[in-house]
Design goal:
Elements (H helix, E strand, L loop, with lengths): L1 E14 L5 E14 L3 E5 L6 H8 L7 E6 L2 E2 L9 E4 L11 H11 L4 H14 L15 H12 L6 E5 L7 H16 L3 E6 L2 H7 L2 E6 L2 E7 H6 L4 E7 L3 H7 L5 E5 L2 E7 L3 H10 L3 E8 L3 H8 L18 H5 L3
Helix pairs in contact: 2-3, 3-4
This protein binds adenosine-5'-diphosphate.
Length: 329
């Protein structure tokens, strides 16, 4: 079953003071997310990630296009009882304590007080805020507010959880905790749809990712599939090569770097066996042989073009899609 289905979603914001002009933030986005998947929406700042999440959550309206959540059109707010949402840079009533805020959030879902109190304790513990329940939110650090935001997103035991930049403002320990929490949610069978610009988080957490840039989808699929698109190379480190060996290896090496007695050779996967054969035949010693796995970062950097220098200058124009135009999208 599809948890999220997005078809041809476009959003134009009206910008300018006197003469309002449309600025395209999303441009014909289509994608779907299976129930139970952990799905990452990736993209640089301004790519349209928050806009997508806000449309799905009905906080803003699309210019054109349709979307369905848990099988229902997004206009049907009855599904909201089954959703959790962490907005980007959450800001809560800061005169409340974390416990009071969680009870308030529970009340919005009509959760009985006793159950709400129990869940509040469990969730504050789960996000690493145990013992801070009595502290006013205004005394929270940014990371603590973020953790509280995640706790409130789970108060109704949602089936589908939207997290907009969940690692934002967290220190390395906080990021690890939240990564583990997302992995737990996946084990529980929840669907998690989160946006991030931190690629290593996506790489450790996501079943599938979509890459957005300036409102358009540049790629979508399983990480393995996406990463396999990149040509892989092999790194071979050898010891004591003669000048003749170096000469024989040169045609097959993409790069050769000598450090002391060692030589690091980078070659295409298809040439690696020739390199290895040559090295062994010349009597040099092989220290290591490693396929170089392309990372999501390599793929991302290859797909996403450089950011516009002054977004204000481009306010009247639809986003420039140099790369997309080249690839015929
Ligand atoms: P992301 O979450 O990927 O950083 P956003 O969805 O916040 O991107 O923004 C996408 C584009 O839409 C950006 O160019 C941003 O400046 C613009 N934008 C976002 N919100 C508004 C708004 N309320 N009014 C005008 N432009 C907006």
């Amino acid at each position: 079953m599809l948890a999220i289905e997005i078809k041809d979603l476009t959003k134009d914001y009206k910008v300018g003071f006197w003469k309002k002009k449309p600025r395209r933030a999303l441009d014909g986005l289509s994608l779907s997310v299976e129930a139970g998947e952990t799905f990452g929406l990736l993209g640089p700042n301004g790519a349209g990630k928050s806009t997508t999440l806000k449309i799905l959550f009905r906080l803003i309206f699309p210019t054109t296009g349709v979307a369905r959540i848990l099988g229902e059109n997004i206009q049907d707010r009855s599904t909201h009882a089954r959703l959790g949402f962490l907005p980007e840079n959450p800001s809560f009533y800061d005169h409340l304590t974390a416990e009071e805020f969680m009870m308030f959030a529970s009340d919005l879902f009509g959760i009985p007080a006793r159950q709400a109190r129990r869940q509040t304790g469990e969730l504050l513990d789960r996000v690493g805020l145990a013992g801070t329940g009595g502290l006013r939110i205004r005394k929270f650090s940014k990371g603590m507010v973020q953790r509280l935001g995640i706790a409130q997103a789970l108060i109704n035991d949602p089936d589908l959880i939207f997290l907009d930049e969940p690692m934002s403002g967290l220190d390395p320990i906080g990021r690890r905790d939240i990564r583990n929490l997302i992995l737990e949610l996946r084990k529980e069978g929840k669907t998690v749809f989160f946006s991030t610009h931190i690629l290593s988080d996506a790489e450790t957490l996501c079943d599938r990712v979509a890459i957005l840039d300036r409102g358009r989808l540049l790629g979508c699929g399983e990480l393995e599939q996406i990463l396999a698109m990149k040509v892989r190379t092999v790194e071979i480190v050898i010891e004591g090569p003669s000048a003749q060996t170096l000469g024989e290896l040169r045609p097959y090496a993409r790069a050769m770097v000598r450090t002391g007695n060692q030589l690091r050779i980078e070659s295409d996967e298809k040439d690696a066996t020739v390199v290895l054969g040559t090295v062994l035949a010349c009597g040099a010693r092989v220290r290591s042989f490693n396929p170089v796995k392309s990372s999501l970062e390599d793929y991302f950097m290859a797909q996403v073009s450089a950011p516009e220098e002054d977004p204000a200058e481009n306010a009247a124009q639809p986003p420039l899609r140099k790369r997309a135009a080249r690839s015929g999208r």
